[in-house]
Design goal:
The chain has about 500 residues and is of the alpha/beta class. Helix content is about 25%, strand content about 15%.
């Protein structure tokens, strides 16, 4: 990564107009004009469910325009396919077991440092609008949090424009805009044209049946509604005359809320759409970046482009250089976790550009997905196929128990991770390499596998609440004080 001295030299060179016009150029912020930043986080949206990522049906013209006018990342990965652990990881730039909030609905501890706090300390106005899900301690990072609204209010996205309009005009700003779209359950407040179930794209692991198609089309509707509000945010920035120096980042917190997606460590759960538009900072538009990046890299990148020092607590690294040189290699590995989300679980994943390796410390359980997905029409269609003995191997995956303790996928030949090659002698060297990388990452970041994890709170597959006293088990990393560990692990 470039040193602070080399970055200052680069800025001077750019100011002198030396760089060639045809080369993508990144303008770092200056003290006189620091950039504004808006981070928009969709809820439960897989990376390939947008038009700019190749989906032929879902209408996302505003998000697609961000990609056309910015940088579209094709290999951005989350650290958890679970709402609150993912968001806590993004805001701290730390792995879930290092945040102390590795499980669903566990609040971020007071000793963790949200990156907007650093921005606020350096003169930024920081505000949040929409879904929160991180507990009370992270609120100190914002000057204003608007995560409550009444029945007559327009909902999560309805907080975004007022926050932009009412912000102090004498400060640079950071906005954390978090949507509830496209989280289940679906609602009827869709004011845009509905998607046609007949045109739904049914993945191989779902049933091609009318209820599933209707389920998918309602999911599409909510993505389109989020896209509408993204367009309104851009319109407001233009009205205020600040669009050119505002960084807009669009992403999601985890994969679509369907079987084999949300909570899973495959690409269908962990790979996120990730787009950055910054007219003043990135001069070449329509750029695609294929480099591996992790959600823990977002915080240090934002701090970096805003000229704010990146502290030791952040386990990620800035990828600001990719905005200048998108083809530049960045990471060799990304890591993700599956901890308790309605059901007992402990999975760890490492992915390179060639392989995806999974370690499952609870292989006795089926990996069925979260409770909200298990009450869906899509799940019921799969249940019907199971009763009829008509499941394909791809559809059977969520029912498999016991599961392999280790899985290895050749992602260049098997992009959707359907064929486990962990037992294939031809992949023995790859298995040993990925296994060693995983062991090193767990050791260096102080990850643990507690014997007594949080148990199931719901019936698997039906999603019905169990008649039990709901208790928490031991949090991964708790026994090793992982919240105090800042090691980044293999990079």
């Amino acid at each position: 990564m470039p040193t602070q001295r080399s970055r200052r030299s680069f800025i001077k060179t750019m100011a002198a107009g030396v760089a060639a016009a045809a080369t993508p150029t990144l303008l770092k912020c200056t003290k006189s004009e620091p950039p504004n930043v808006i981070l928009i986080i969709g809820d439960d949206i897989s990376w390939n469910d947008l038009g700019c990522y190749g989906h032929p049906t879902i209408r996302t013209p505003n998000i697609d325009r961000l990609a056309t006018e910015g940088v579209r990342f094709t290999n951005a990965f989350l650290t958890a396919s679970s709402c609150s652990p993912s968001r806590c990881s993004i805001i701290t730039g730390r792995y879930p077991h290092n945040t102390g909030a590795a499980e669903l609905h566990t609040p971020l501890p007071a000793d963790q440092i949200p990156f907007p706090l650093r921005l606020k300390e350096h003169g930024y106005y920081c505000a949040q609008g929409g879904k929160w899900h991180m507990g009370p301690h992270a609120r100190r990072a914002f000057d204003e949090v608007r995560d409550k609204w009444g029945k007559e209010d327009p909902g999560a996205e309805g907080q975004w424009l007022p926050l932009l309009q009412e912000r102090p005009k004498d400060k640079p700003f950071f906005m954390w805009f978090a949507s509830f779209d496209a989280h289940r359950g679906w609602d009827d407040k869709i004011f845009l044209p509905r998607h046609d179930p007949a045109k739904a794209q049914v993945p191989k692991y779902l049933a091609d049946a009318p209820p599933t198609r209707a389920d998918l089309s309602k999911y599409y509707d909510e993505i389109a509604r989020l896209d509408y509000y993204v367009g309104k945010v851009e319109e407001e920035l233009q009205k205020q005359g600040v669009a050119d120096n505002t960084v807009i980042i669009f992403m999601a917190d985890n994969g679509r809320p369907f079987p084999r997606c949300k909570t899973r460590v495959y690409d269908s759960g962990m790979k996120t759409p990730f787009i950055i538009k910054w007219p003043k900072g990135v001069r070449k538009t329509g750029v695609t970046c294929n480099s591996l990046v992790s959600a823990i890299d977002i915080a240090p990148t934002i701090l970096d482009i805003c000229g704010v020092p990146v502290g030791e607590s952040f386990q990620g690294k800035s990828f600001a250089a990719l905005l200048k040189t998108p083809q530049k290699p960045f990471r060799r590995y990304v890591f993700s976790e599956h901890n308790w989300h309605d059901f007992e679980a402990l999975e760890r994943m490492v992915r390179s550009d060639k392989y995806l390796y999974v370690l499952n410390e609870r292989p006795q359980f089926p990996n069925c997905g979260p409770a909200d997905s298990n009450t869906s029409d899509s799940q019921r269609d799969l249940d019907s196929l199971r009763v009829a003995g008509a499941l394909t191997p791809e559809q059977y995956d969520i029912f498999m128990a016991p599961r392999p303790r280790e899985e290895l996928f050749d992602v260049q030949k098997d992009a959707e991770q359907f064929r486990n090659v962990a037992d294939d002698p031809a992949y023995a060297d790859a298995l040993n390499e990925m296994r060693a990388v995983m062991a090193r990452w767990r050791r260096e970041t102080a990850d643990t596998s507690p014997q007594h994890l949080t148990p199931d709170w719901y019936e698997r597959f039906t999603g019905r609440p169990l008649d039990i006293e709901r208790t928490r088990g031991e949090m991964p990393g708790a026994a090793s004080d992982a919240t105090r560990v800042n090691a980044k692990g293999p990079f």
